[in-house]
Amino acid sequence: MLDLSLRHGFEDFTLEAAFTAPAGVTALFGHSGSGKTTIVNALAGLLRPDAGRIVLGDRVLFDSQARVFMPPHKRRIGYVFQDARLFPHLTVRQNLLYGRRFAARGGAGADMGRIVELLGIGALMERRPGALSGGEKQRVAMGRAILSDPELLLMDEPLAALDGARKGEILTYLERLRDETALPILYVSHSVAEVTRLATTLVLIEAGHVMRSGPVEAIMADPDAVPALGLREAGALLTARLAAHDADGLSRLDSEGGALWLPHVEGPIGAALRLRILAQDVMLAVERPQGISALNVLPARVLEVRQGAGPGALVQLAVGEARLLARVTGRSAKALELGPGREVYAVIKAVSVARDSIGEGR
Amino acid sequence: MTEYLSPQEWQAVSLSLQVALWATLLSLPLGILVAHALARWQFPGKSLLNGVVHLPLILPPVVTGYLLLIGFGRRGPIGALLEEYCGLVLAFRWTGAVLAAAIMAFPLMVRAIRLAIEAVDPKLEAAAATLGANRLRVFATITLPLILPGILAGAVLGFAKAMGEFGATITFVSNIPGQTQTLPSAVYAFLQVPGGEGQAMRLVIVAIAISMGALLLSEWLARVVARRIGAKEG
């Protein structure tokens, strides 16, 4: 558990942020220049904020009032930088072992063999960083941070410097890391896709301030959070269970809001999935639509309608216990008399699987 | 080699090698420290330190030698203390030649090492700190290995300068054959006597050979080190 509150003045803006990161993956989301990197550098001890307090577990890392500033090498925070920062004069193996020699003696620590296998870097051990690809470097950097036996793993846009294919590859490793180690992770990103795939908790940063923080499902379904996330990326998350693989190639998923059919989804029956439904992929109807090609229609109740600055409006819906967001025009919202309490049908045009395994009690 | 050089010439060559080696070895640790301070630390008086370090480079060597004589001579404030408490006499001794050579070589050495330190990405040092290494360990395990080529270059430059140092040396420790007569002083002395050109020429050839040898050795070492630290891989 991480408890952080900081204030730090720059020439052109002031960062003033406070949030709590429970176990699991906490994503720090914000656009470039919103102050994310300042926050993580302060957390790692690479920057001394003007004021604030940072507590990790039962250790006070920084407290401006009590004049406590723990130097970076004592903080036990594994930092995975955007630019891997491997040591060029050391082999991959020596890089991986670098932090280990300073790690607390007697601590069990992570098992090197397991981490190497988890990250798929066994074949690279004797190479030097200069001979590695971007994705390989980033995996080694993650391994190095984990093996330093940290109490928290800090990742500052670890995928930003990689191309699409490499991103997917590393995300898979990150998911494994999240599910197979108990290490809490603070993940900095400005990609909604990464956040929805990895995070359990979301902290939205805007212009140096925390705009929202809480469970990722709640924030993704919050119309207020949409401007920060970007209209195109806005969309709620649903948890569903893989129920059946039908003969015609579709898979049935049972969500809190009802059954959904998707083109074949890999995985064993009973597997828990996280689905992402973009607000722009949800249409609303006041009666159950007849003669429509869309397969996925869920009964829903309007919770809130929020008229945007332009012609669009965002509608928050309750489907069972879960929340959905729909983006409609203001004209339609008026014509359908949408308002709190109105019973509607949500026609879902597209669903993507944001995460293929959410087990392990998260 | 003794067959080709007269005893006096041989003494001058070996004394020069001795002086240059000691001057390089003794000033290297301090050179690394000062270069690191100038490259990485912020402290009051930084530009003053920078100026003092570079002073021997811009002052006439004779002036440096004279200042050394005033300060480190047997009746000079530092020289007297050294003699009283350490039994160390510098003026008109080969040890004084080491000091003069070291001071003259120091700015060149510091410049080369400072450039190497500035080329090390501070982000790597920050990364090492987050992995649990304190400042000293960061320096020993990251900075130092990465600046080895620069240290080598600085050492060779310093060695060459120390070998060739003349003005400050002759002012501070004079030109006593067998005691303080280094190779350049010997060349100068031979050129002062009629018929000494042959002797001077032999020493000139030795000087060229030693300098070229040192240069080639340092280039080879730098290549080996660069390969070992992976700087050449891409």
Automatic annotation (TrEMBL), chain A:
Residues 1-232 form the ABC transporter domain. SUPFAM superfamilies: MOP-like, P-loop containing nucleoside triphosphate hydrolases. GO terms for molecular function: ABC-type transporter activity; ATP binding; ATP hydrolysis activity; molybdate ion transmembrane transporter activity. GO terms for cellular component: membrane. Keywords: ATP-binding, Cell inner membrane, Cell membrane, Membrane, Molybdenum, Nucleotide-binding, Translocase, Transport. It holds the Pfam family TOBE. InterPro entries: AAA+_ATPase, ABC_transporter-like_ATP-bd, ABC_transporter-like_CS, Mo/tungstate-bd_C_term_dom, ModC_ABC_ATP-bd, Molybdenum_import_ModC, Mop_domain, P-loop_NTPase. Residues 291-357 form the Mop domain. The keyword 4Fe-4S does not apply. SMART domains: AAA. Transmembrane segments: none annotated. Gene3D superfamilies: 2.40.50.100, P-loop containing nucleotide triphosphate hydrolases. PANTHER family: ABC TRANSPORTER I FAMILY MEMBER 10 (PTHR43514:SF4). NCBIfam families: modC_ABC. This is Molybdenum ABC transporter ATP-binding protein. It comes from Pararhodobacter oceanensis.
UniProtKB/TrEMBL annotation, chain B:
The chain crosses the membrane at residues 20-39, 51-72, 92-117, 138-160, 200-222. Keywords: Cell inner membrane, Cell membrane, Membrane, Molybdenum, Transmembrane, Transmembrane helix, Transport. GO terms for molecular function: molybdate ion transmembrane transporter activity. The keyword Transport applies. It is found in: Cell inner membrane; Cell membrane. It is a multi-pass membrane protein. The keyword Transmembrane helix applies. InterPro entries: MetI-like (IPR000515), MetI-like_sf (IPR035906), ModB_ABC (IPR011867). GO terms for cellular component: plasma membrane. Residues 13-216 form the ABC transmembrane type-1 domain. Belongs to the binding-protein-dependent transport system permease family. CysTW subfamily. Part of the binding-protein-dependent transport system for molybdenum; probably responsible for the translocation of the substrate across the membrane. This is Molybdenum transport system permease. It comes from Pararhodobacter oceanensis.
